[in-house]
Amino acid sequence: MEEVQRHSVHTLVFRSLKRSHDFFVSNQSILNLEADEKTEKMRYSVKARDSYGPIFDRVAAVEQEKKKADYFGKSTEHTESKGNEMALVPSSQSNNNTNESTSSSALLSIPQSFSQSQQQLIPKKPSSIPKPKWHAPWKLYRVISGHLGWVRCVAVEPGNEWFATGAADRVIKIWDLASGKLKLSLTGHVSTVRGLAISPRHPYLFSCGEDRQVKCWDLEYNKVVRHYHGHLSAVYSMSLHPTLDVLVTAGRDSTARIWDMRTKANIHTLCGHTNTIASVVTQAANPQIITGSHDSTVRLWDLAAGKSMCTLTNHKKSVRGVVLHPTLYMFASASPDNIKQWRCPEGNFVQNLSGHNTIVNCMAVNSEGVLVSGGDNGSMHFWDWRTGYNFQRIQASVQPGSMDSEAGIFSMIFDQSGSRLITTEADKTIKIYREDDEASESSHPVNWKPDIIKRRKY
């Protein structure tokens, strides 16, 4: 028995390709689709049906209803009732007395679909766009210094007495909201702190950072009580579910992980994004989790199934900020091309907010309908949520001794009352803004010119 010669997989694959080529090379260029009239006609019909199918159906329905109207208007017929159905009978089988009554009833009952289709064809009157609500302009009233690096994140306590910030100096600092004084410093991270979340039901503060760590701090003892291990790279954003004891974290490994706060178990790992997830938010209603990523998409997730419900691909550049409206069932996503508003739960597009032409790192919105976007160049734009009207623009000034390039805004949040806006910036400061009490509608009028083409009514 002679030994079978062994070949490498590479040799066998190319030998198979060569055999296939030699087998089919004689049939090359025999079938000429361009010369086949029947195939060409079929190709055009499929293309037309794919592109203009609804228009063809609408035209056919209108023609059919028109024939019905002509038939009932010019010929004489009557109907025989059988149960709930209407049966048309030719006029030669009926007398003249029944003709008049039945033809009139037929005209009243049957052509309803015709009238409906005609109503659909009537062009709708352009919707009137509501005028934006007047909002008082905002002004800077406090600057807080204390961090030794870029201040990357901020969270406000549910009781509205203090707020926490995390920075590139690896320290979490807790500040008194009323006075702006430092109350506490928490050390434990070994790299930049990128996300903070404060539980409304437990005395817990959660933090995440570029050291891949997710920590749970017990604020009664001011120490770490739990670690959540699993992320493969830096963790950039986190959010607490408002009703469940569930924590959601996301970051540079392109995944969002759902943790049980008590047991530290990784319940779900949400996979689907192809680049860094920069922002994650949670809400009690569906979709319960929304993520924005550097792959230019926004994904809506089903928390129970741990799967993506919908992917929004309208953005052309990285989505670094996602924010939920506190009272409306809506959310907004920010990208250098546009800020876009969406309606839950399907993620229906509402309108574009155009004009903030920079890298938008963060957004915040209060119950009064004031949406604020913060840019990487230190610019802040204030918008009316309902109409998308940009009523104010602020250029944050850097601290003395800082470079102009350190004017970036990394995060922002409204306090629980919505009357104060806290921003964290690249010049190592925390700035607090509030409304100008002396402003009025006469001193700061609404200079509004709506763009009907780009805006939608909702």
TrEMBL record:
PROSITE patterns: WD_REPEATS_1, WD_REPEATS_2, WD_REPEATS_REGION. GO terms for biological process: mRNA splicing, via spliceosome. GO terms for cellular component: catalytic step 2 spliceosome; precatalytic spliceosome; Prp19 complex. Gene3D superfamilies: YVTN repeat-like/Quinoprotein amine dehydrogenase. It comes from the Eukaryota. Residues 71-107 are annotated as: Disordered. PANTHER family: PLEIOTROPIC REGULATOR 1 (PTHR19923:SF0), WD40 REPEAT PROTEINPRL1/PRL2-RELATED (PTHR19923). Identified in the spliceosome C complex. Component of the PRP19-CDC5L splicing complex composed of a core complex comprising a homotetramer of PRPF19, CDC5L, PLRG1 and BCAS2, and at least three less stably associated proteins CTNNBL1, CWC15 and HSPA8. Interacts (via its WD40 repeat domain) directly with CDC5L (via its C-terminal); the interaction is required for mRNA splicing but not for spliceosome assembly. Component of the minor spliceosome, which splices U12-type introns. Within this complex, interacts with CRIPT. Also interacts directly in the complex with BCAS2 and PRPF19. This is Pleiotropic regulator 1.
